[in-house]
Specification:
Chain A: Pathway: Protein modification; protein neddylation. The complex is a heterodimer of chains A (443) and B (182). With 443 residues, chain A is an alpha/beta fold. An 8-stranded mixed β-sheet of chain A has the order 3-2-1-4-7-8-9-10, with helices on both faces. Chain A has a 5-stranded mixed β-sheet with strand order 11-15-14-12-13. Chain A is 35% helix and 17% strand. With 182 residues, chain B is α+β, with helices and mostly antiparallel strands. Helix content of chain B is 25%, strand content 14%. Chain B contains 4 helices and 6 strands; from the N terminus they run H-E-E-E-E-H-H-H-E-E. In chain B, the strands form 2 sheets. A 4-stranded antiparallel β-sheet of chain B has the order 1-2-3-4, with helices on one face. The longest helix of chain B has 13 residues. The relative contact order of chain B is 0.14. Classes of the chains: A alpha/beta (443), B alpha+beta (182). The interface between A and B is large, with 86 and 63 residues. The structure holds zinc ion (ZN).
Chain lengths: 443, 182
C-alpha cells in the first residue's frame, strides 16, 4: 500500500500527467490509468547489463524515472580512467566491483529505489535468471556479450503451433557509443530485427592491412599494431600471451613501437595510445553516453507503460559536426541464424532402437525437410559434439561409426537439441528431440 | 505495434520454469561454423584436417597448388575460429615456411579478407579461395616479405628459381626453408 501512497506523491506528478491522461501521441491501445505508475514502481523489473559509461547513466535515468526494481550486472572493477564519466564511482572505489558500487550509490541517493548488483559475467546466469525481467537494457562495449544476451532472449521465446507466445517476449533496448557517435535500438525478440539480423551494422574492429603496417607505416597506430601483431609473437618477451592490463607488457610494446616510429620518422606514439591500440579502446565521450542512455531509458519507459509507441527500431546519432540523428526500421532477416528459428520438434518413438542414420534418412526423405546431405552436431553436457558430417573427409571418417549407434548410445536425451546444417536451408536448424516412450518411465 | 504488457500479467516472479536445466545452447558462432563447414566446397587442390571432429573451430587447410610458381609444394594453414565469428574473421596462420611476397617468416598472411576487408557474409570457403589465389597470383604490390616481392617484380625467372629452391628445402637470401614438396 505504501507504494500507492508513494506514487501519489508530488515527486511523480510529471509522470502522472503522462500516464493518467490520454493524448494525441499515445499508443493506440493506451488506456490511461493510475495503475501504470504502480506497475513501474512495484512490479516492473529491469535488468541493466553493464555498469560502465552507459550503465551509470542508465541506472541514474531509470531510478529517477520511478523504476524501483532494477538489477545491474557487470564483471568489471573500477579503474582510475573510468572516473571522468562513470559518475557513480569515486577515487576510493578504485578496484571495487562496478555493479556493487553503482547499486549502493543509487540505493543511497534515490529514495525507495532498490538496485540489486551482480558482479559476474552475463554467461554465469541461465534462463531462469533472465526470465524474471520485463525488459533488458544493455550498455555494453562488447559485441560478443550483445550477441550472447540476444541469443538468450530469443531462446526463451515460446511458440505454440508455430505461433509466437507474446508473453514470452522480453524486449531488449540496446545502446552503444563510440566517441561522438552512438546508436540506440529496440529489439522485440522474435518480432523485430535482432542483434544477429544486423550483425553487419556493428563496426568491425579497427584493423590495418598487414602489408601496410609491415612496410609502409604512416600512422603511430601502424607502428604499435606492428609490434602487437608481428614483433610480440616473434620475440615472445614474457613467454605469455599479450595482456593489455599488464603494465610491463604495455611498457615493452611502447618501447618497441617508439623504435619503429623513430625508424620511419612517425611522430605521435605515446604510452596512452599504445594502451588504446592494444586494448582496442575507443575514447568515450561523457555527453554521448548521456544522450544515448537518455534515449534508451525513454524507450524502456515507453515499452513498460505503453504510453507511446516505441522507437521502430534503430537510431543512429552523431555529433561530430553539428547534430545528426536518423531513425529507421532495421529489418528482420528471414534467414537469421538466431531469431528465424521456430523451434522444431522431432518425435522419436524409441531412442534405444532409432539409429543416427535413420534420423538422416528421415531428414532427407521427409516432405518438410527434403535435405541433401545434412551435417549434424549437438551439445552434450555443455560440450559440442559432431554426430556426423559427410562433406569433410577427416570428420566423416571419425564420425561414421555414429551412424549405426542408437540415440541412447550417442548420449542424446529427451529434449536434446541437434543442430542440422544442409544446403537446402539458409541457416543451421535447431531440432529438439522428443522421446515418446519416456513420459511414463521418467515420473 | 503490440502492447506488450497488459497489467494483469505482470507477475513473472516465481513462475514455473519448464525449460530450466536445459543443456547449454549452441552459440550463434557455433551454428554458423557448422553451416560453413558442412558446405565447404573445396577446390581439388585443397583438403582439410580436423584433429578433433567435435571441435569445428580449430582445423588445418592443406593447399597443393596444381599450377603457377608453387605447383610442386604443399602448404599448411591453421584456422582458429573465435566466439565472435562471423563478426570477426578466423585467425589464419601459414604453418609451412614459404618464400612468398605476402607471407612472412612467422606465418602471417597478408590477405585483405583476413583483416580489413572481412565481412560477416564471407565464409570459410571465401578464405580458402583467397588463400589459393595467393599461390596462383602472388602480389608484389602488398608485400610482407619485401625481398621476395622485389625479386618477383624485377625478375620472374629468379623468383621462380627461389620458390623452387625453398620448396625443395634450402637457403634463399640467407633464410633456411624446410622442404615442403608435395
Ligand atoms: Zn535475428
Amino acid at each position: 500500500m505504501s507504494e500507492t501512497v508513494e506514487s501519489s506523491q508530488k515527486r511523480w506528478g510529471h509522470l502522472r500527467k503522462v500516464l493518467e491522461r490520454p493524448g494525441p501521441f499515445c499508443h493506440p491501445e493506451f488506456e490511461p490509468s493510475s495503475e501504470i505508475l504502480d506497475f513501474i514502481m512495484t512490479s516492473c523489473k529491469i535488468l541493466i547489463i553493464g555498469a560502465g559509461g552507459l550503465g551509470c547513466e542508465l541506472l541514474k535515468d531509470l531510478a529517477l524515472m520511478g523504476f524501483k526494481q532494477i538489477h545491474v550486472i557487470d564483471m568489471d572493477t573500477i579503474d582510475l580512467s573510468n572516473l571522468n564519466r562513470q559518475f557513480l564511482f569515486r577515487h576510493k572505489d578504485i578496484g571495487s566491483a562496478k555493479a556493487e558500487v553503482a547499486a549502493e550509490f543509487i540505493n543511497k541517493r534515490v529514495a525507495g529505489c532498490y538496485v540489486t548488483p551482480h558482479f559476474c559475467k552475463i554467461q554465469d546466469y541461465d534462463e531462469e535468471f533472465y526470465r524474471q525481467f520485463h525488459i533488458v537494457v544493455c550498455g555494453l562495449d562488447s559485441i560478443v556479450a550483445r550477441r550472447w544476451i540476444n541469443g538468450m532472449l530469443v531462446a526463451m521465446l515460446q511458440y505454440e503451433n508455430g505461433v509466437l507466445d507474446q508473453s514470452s517476449v522480453i524486449p531488449m533496448v540496446d545502446g552503444g557509443t563510440e566517441g561522438f557517435k552512438g546508436n540506440a535500438r529496440v529489439i522485440l525478440p522474435g518480432m523485430s530485427a535482432c542483434v544477429e539480423c544486423t550483425l553487419d551494422l556493428y563496426p568491425p574492429q579497427v584493423t590495418y592491412p598487414l602489408c601496410t603496417i609491415a612496410n609502409t607505416p604512416r600512422l603511430p597506430e601502424h607502428c604499435i599494431e606492428y609490434v602487437k601483431v608481428i614483433t610480440w609473437p616473434k620475440e615472445n618477451p614474457f613467454n605469455t600471451a599479450l595482456d593489455g592490463d599488464d603494465p610491463q607488457h604495455i611498457g615493452w610494446i611502447y618501447e618497441k613501437s617508439m623504435e619503429r616510429a623513430l625508424h620511419f620518422n612517425i611522430p605521435g606514439v605515446t604510452y596512452r595510445l599504445v594502451q588504446g591500440v592494444v586494448k582496442n579502446i575507443i575514447p568515450a565521450v561523457a555527453s554521448t553516453n548521456a544522450i544515448i542512455a537518455g534515449i534508451c531509458a525513454t524507450e524502456v519507459f515507453k515499452i513498460a507503460t505503453s504510453c507511446c509507441v516505441p522507437m521502430n527500431n534503430y537510431m543512429v546519432f552523431n555529433d561530430v559536426d553539428g547534430i545528426y540523428s536518423y531513425t529507421y526500421e532495421a529489418e528482420k532477416k528471414e534467414n537469421c541464424l538466431v531469431c528465424s528459428q521456430i523451434p522444431q520438434e522431432l518425435p522419436i518413438k524409441d531412442p534405444s532402437l532409432m539409429k543416427l542414420k535413420e534420423i538422416i534418412s528421415l531428414l532427407c526423405e521427409s516432405v518438410i525437410y527434403q535435405m541433401k546431405s545434412p551435417g549434424i552436431t549437438t551439445t552434450i553436457g555443455g560440450k559440442n559434439k559432431t554426430l556426423y558430417i559427410s562433406a569433410i573427409k577427416s570428420i566423416e571418417e571419425k564420425t561414421k561409426d555414429n551412424l549405426n549407434k542408437t540415440l541412447t548410445e550417442l548420449g542424446l536425451k529427451d529434449g536434446s537439441e541437434i543442430m542440422v546444417a544442409d544446403v537446402t536451408s539458409p541457416t543451421t536448424l535447431v531440432i529438439k528431440l522428443k522421446f515418446m516412450n519416456n513420459d511414463v518411465e521418467m515420473n | 505495434m503490440i502492447k506488450l504488457f497488459s497489467l494483469k500479467q505482470q507477475k513473472k516472479d516465481g513462475e514455473a520454469s519448464p525449460r530450466s536445466g536445459n543443456p547449454k545452447k549452441a552459440s550463434a558462432a557455433q551454428l554458423r561454423i557448422t553451416k560453413d563447414i558442412n558446405e565447404l566446397n573445396l577446390p581439388k587442390t585443397c583438403t582439410t584436417e580436423f584433429p578433433d571432429p567435435d571441435d569445428l573451430l580449430t582445423f588445418k587447410l592443406i593447399i597443393c597448388p596444381d599450377e603457377g610458381f608453387y605447383r610442386t609444394g604443399r602448404f599448411i594453414f591453421s584456422f582458429k575460429v573465435g566466439p565472435n565469428y562471423p563478426h570477426e574473421p578466423p585467425k589464419v596462420k601459414c604453418e609451412t615456411q614459404v618464400y612468398h611476397p605476402n607471407i612472412d617468416q612467422q606465418g602471417n598472411v597478408c590477405l585483405n579478407i583476413l583483416r580489413e576487408d572481412w565481412k560477416p557474409v564471407l565464409t570459410i570457403n571465401s578464405i580458402v579461395y583467397g588463400l589459393q589465389y595467393l599461390f596462383l597470383e602472388p602480389n608484389p604490390e602488398d608485400p610482407l616479405n619485401k625481398e621476395a616481392a622485389e625479386v618477383l617484380t624485377n625478375n620472374r625467372r629468379v623468383f621462380e628459381q627461389n620458390v623452387q629452391k625453398a620448396i625443395r628445402g634450402g637457403y634463399v637470401g640467407g633464410i633456411y626453408f624446410e622442404r615442403c614438396l608435395k
